Amino acid sequence: MDIKSYLARKKEIIDKALEKLVPPADAFPPSIHEAMRYSLFAGGKRVRPILAVAAAEAFGANTAGLLPIAGALELIHTYSLIHDDLPAMDNDDFRRGRPTNHRVYGEAIAILAGDGLLNMAFEVLSDPRRLKAVPAKRLVAITKEIATASGVYGMVGGQVVDMASEGREIDFPTLEYIHTHKTGALMRASVRVGAIYAKAGKKQLAALTRYGELTGLAFQIADDILDITGTQEEIGKDVGSDLRKDKKTFPSFYGLDAARARAQEVANMAVRVLKDFGRKADPLRELAKYIVNRVN
């Protein structure tokens, strides 16, 4: 299958769903809504919501009712990017080829824009209209998945250890903790959300959980590599920032060639996990390959 065409089609669908979830830029107070939309519609690949949709499609599920939930995943991801870029954290100037949110709107509005997106995600998930497509028990399970992946047992915990590790010698288990929590937790949750929505069995959910873990790890290794080999024009953000902040990464532990080999190995493992799934899981297989071969 042509994964680039698949991603383009799904991105268009996700973007239309997001337009229905967030207020227009001129809604009062316009300063916050404009800032939220600035980052949300800055051209992201929508990998996390697409992973959720692809996981549900692997079971032949109708994904129309999943789209708002998938959109909530992107709201949370965008919030995390706004906050990651803040002066108190990574202090980056560019994201997705444009000045970061705080560079355009100021630090206070950027913080609040991230807060607004995070809370709006849970507004979406708790909207009674979701119950038309997802029974309450499954919707609660989905909401818990997303909340856990976003909090101290997921992204927040990973970010804390990442910041605490700057300029320090850390061991490899600590690096893996950072990667599997700061980046991997929400990607794992995205796959699980799609599977739970589609009523996956216990064995199937376990396989897709492992797929999500491996795909998240491969994604972060690829990011580490791009921070060294990419250009600002290609990846749309500051390059070499890991080196400047003296962050430990897969390339700094093992070198570029070994990091590339590890990323490919992890992606291949993710594909093998899907051996008992049919052709409907091909988008998931191709996504794992795409993640390690992307240029941005």
Brief descriptors of the model:
two-stranded antiparallel sheet, Farnesyl Diphosphate Synthase, mainly alpha, 2 strands, 1% strand
Quick structural summary:
This protein has 296 residues and is an all-alpha fold.
Major sheet: order of its strands? 1-2
Return Rg in Å.
18 Å
Low-confidence stretches: none
Number of strands: 2
Instruction: Let me know the average pLDDT.
Output: 93
The CATH class assignment is Mainly Alpha
Question: What is the helix fraction of residues, given as a range?
Answer: 55-70%
- Approximate strand percentage: under 5%
Order of helices and strands, N to C? Answer: HHHHEEHHHHHHHHHHH
Q: Tell me about the biggest sheet? A: 2 strands, antiparallel
CATH topology type = Farnesyl Diphosphate Synthase
Q: Count of helical segments?
A: 15
Total separate domains = 1
Going by CATH, the architecture would be Orthogonal Bundle
Overall form: globular
CATH-defined superfamily: Farnesyl Diphosphate Synthase
By secondary-structure content and strand pairing, the structural class works out as: mainly alpha
State the end-to-end distance.
21 Å
Account of the 3D structure:
The protein is mainly α and 296 residues long. It has a single domain, classed as Farnesyl Diphosphate Synthase. 70% of the residues lie in helices and 1% in strands. A two-stranded antiparallel sheet has the order 1-2. β1 and β2 (98-99) form a beta hairpin. α1 packs across α4, α2 packs across α6 and α3 crosses α9. The longest helix has 28 residues, at 202-229. The protein is globular. The two termini are 21 Å apart. The model has no long low-confidence stretch (mean pLDDT 93).
